[in-house]
Amino acid sequence: MILKCDQxxxxxxxxxxxxxxxxxxxxxxxxxxxQLQEHTAEQRVLCLGRTDRGRLLAVVYTEREGAxxxxxxxPMTRRQEAIYPKER
Length: 88
Known about the structure:
By secondary structure, the protein is an alpha+beta fold. It has one domain (3-83). The chain contains 3 helices and 5 strands; from the N terminus they run E-H-H-E-E-E-E-H. The protein has helices at 7-15, 20-28, 78-83, and strands at residues 3-4, 32-39, 42-50, 56-64, 67-75. The protein has a 5-stranded mixed sheet. A hairpin with a 2-residue loop joins strand 2 (32-39) and strand 3. The chain is globular.
C-alpha cells in the first residue's frame, strides 16, 4: 500500500490524537469499509480498522494518482465500535 501524507493531513490527524503510523496500520489490518462518500470531485471511503496495538479507528481515505491519501482518522464512536466485528 502506498500511503501519501503531507504536513497538513499529519497535523489534522494529530488533532484527533492519531499518528500517521496508526492510520496506516488500521488500513493495513483488514479494515471494514462501511460507507462511500461523494466529495467534490472524488470519492472517499470510511472504514473501520484496528491498529497493531488494538486501538479502534475510523479512517476516511481517498485514492489519488495510484496512492491512498488519508483525509482524516479518529477513534471509533460507540456506534462504530458496535458494528465493527470483534473477531476481525
